[in-house]
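Subject: mismatched residue count in predicted assembly?

I count 627 residues in my input, but I want to confirm that the predicted structure covers every chain. Input:
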Amino acid sequence: MKLITAIIKPFKLDDVKDALKAIGVTGMTVTEVRGFGRQGGHTETYRGAEYKIDFVPKVSVETVVSDAQVDAVVDAIASAAHSEKIGDGKIWVVDVERLIRIRTGEEGDHAV
Amino acid sequence: MRLVTAVIKPFKLDEVKDALKAIGVTGMTATEVRGFGRQGGHTETYRGAEYKIDFVPKVRLELVVDDAQVDEVVDTIASTAATDKIGDGKIWVTAVDRIVRIRTGEEGSAAI
Amino acid sequence: MGLDTGDTAWVLISAALVLFMTPGLALFYGGMVRSKHVLGMLMQNIFAMGIISVLWSAVGYSLAFGGSGRFIGDFSLAFLNGADGITGTIPTMAFVAFQMMFAVITPALITGATADRLKFASYAVLIAAWALLVYFPVARWVWNSNGWIFQMGALDFAGGAAIHINAGIAALAVVLVIGNRIGHGSEPMPPHNLPTTILGTGILWFGWMGFNAGSALAANGVAAQAVVNTHLAAAAGMLGWLIAERKQAGHATTLGAASGAVAGLVAITPCAGFVGGASPLIIGAVAGALCYLALGIKARLKLDDSLDVIAVHLVGGIIGTVLLGLFADTGVNDGGADGLFYGGGVELLVDQVIAAVSVLIYSFVVTYVIAKVIDRTMGLRVDSNDERAGLDQSQHSESAYQA
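Triage response: the counts match. Full output below for your records.
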């Protein structure tokens, strides 16, 4: 199994979720995060004091999938999250050694 | 490529970000998390009822870097985030199988 | 003059309006600090409602309004014994209540300057001592008919000198003793919740109607003029600040709108029942713009007046107190005087400057000594671990927002 993590633009979350559901992904975890990247940040000014805000709001989507599904999932996220504007985000894949569904105790691909 | 994950004290975030920028890191993701570790928690009291708060606020930093840069990145985070007081946090490194930049579809080192 | 029920009703309502300003101030400041310190800030403000009210009833009212001294009263009205007569056309007890709310909010104004680092127990001692040694005497000077500033002829309708200059310069004195926040100038410390600050601004603006118009101590034409002046100065203050801000920093901000309105309210406070016509608009706009420009003072002094008490209250209070010497008009209130622009010559202007400078010097010196003594004995400031953890957790064992 692999853990796929995608950092995407927040307004793309629903598109990504629908695209993943359509290819049979049954679960994912979503976190509001802040990202710093080539998109750059912006400045905010409070009573004349300027603050450089480097981190902009992003959403992190994490899902564990079976090896056979990895490429389909990565491609689905990549095309659904795509806006062609800088700051679309990144997707990375790391190996998962063990996976358990807590309710049933199932392990491995059964627990995906 | 490697995924470097660091859990640090929240007030150290800006310093760590600036130090990473200085060594050429162009992107990272920050998340507000709560950590439980040797630092221990604290108690809060509401109308006489005590609550033990074991999880204290932390920031989790994630960044994917080239193999060649991993050690420099880890060392930079470690030296910048250190306060010598308990609760400075942890850094770990995992292998990344695949990485995609969503906007361009670039993969591998080009996508970092 | 007998008791007037209309006057009495208005002053009683005004007391409640002014009371409401202190929690309003708490929210105004609370939104501007970082989230780990917000309860510390709210607590410092509402705690003033507790301790100062008790002190006021015990000795404060008597020291400010009892006896016949020019500089301080006596204990003849301690615990409000004998305060059951009539003052003007209202029960003395209505006046006691109204003035009590002024005593409550004045020390609370200081907390904006010392945000995120004041030890709670030391704060309690600080504001109690400050009320006793600074506020009660200054209220005597300015508002009691025996007080030396009152007798000199200087005017302060609702507290430009007695409240805003007084608290503003005290804030400077305490900051000099306590020092800057850890990370000041190197870590970003933006406001954590501006909607809260805007809500606080609304409450302050609303309560200020009672603060200024209640100071007429009657439901009459002067009170009505004060309501209009108060509102117009806040409005013009907002515009003045926003124009200056937009010109200098590029954006008109919500915090700027809120701060400008408060600056206008501060400046109109001494003038509210003594000016009319376009004067409140001029006073408000000048205060809005100048208070914005005064934000730079703390940067130049490398002084961590965290929430700009000096720029808004000290500078705004000085602007209002001095401009009253120009704009006062006996056509509006024959109990007042004419300023330079209304044929009164420079006499009132000189009196206003003397009043402002006297309060400034007295409050600074005494506050500095109080703060220094507390710092040497119990320590004014939390230790660095507690400051890092936040006042909410370290001083009160609570947190504002549960994860």
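Residues 2-111 of chain A form a domain with the Alpha-Beta Plaits fold (CATH 3.30.70.120). Marking this ticket as 'not a bug'.
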